[in-house]
Amino acid sequence: QAIYGSVRPLTVYITAPRQSGSPFEIFVCNLPWQVDDSWLEKLFSAHGEVVDARVVYYERRGGTRRSRGFGFVTMATEEQSYYAINSLNKQVLEGRTLRVKVSRESPQQGY
């Protein structure tokens, strides 16, 4: 059951490794607002070894943080990354349809 009335598509991207043997990064969007780093890690760990999972936040007045509705997950191998993408893309989480893809750009470049 959705906590919020609106539904946004979630997109996840995997980046190519920065160097040989590097982990692979996935971009996930349309995350429910209540999803945090540990929830994101648990979601993806069912599909392989999670090296890192982080939700992107912005600071609000008064020092509070709010999710921007997207995040990044780094899997241990390319195979696990693609397995996670194929398994989770377009799945509904808390009433929101996740979009999960290979991250093509670094998080600093406008996600």
From TrEMBL:
Single GO MF descriptor: mRNA binding
Record InterPro entries: Euk_RNA-bind_prot, Nucleotide-bd_a/b_plait_sf, RBD_domain_sf, RRM_dom
Gene3D superfamilies reported in the protein's UniProt record: 3.30.70.330
Keyword annotations from UniProtKB, A to Z: RNA-binding
Pfam families: RRM_1
Domain RRM, first and last residues per copy: 24-105
Name of protein: RRM domain-containing protein
Higher taxonomy: Eukaryota, Viridiplantae, Streptophyta, Embryophyta, Tracheophyta
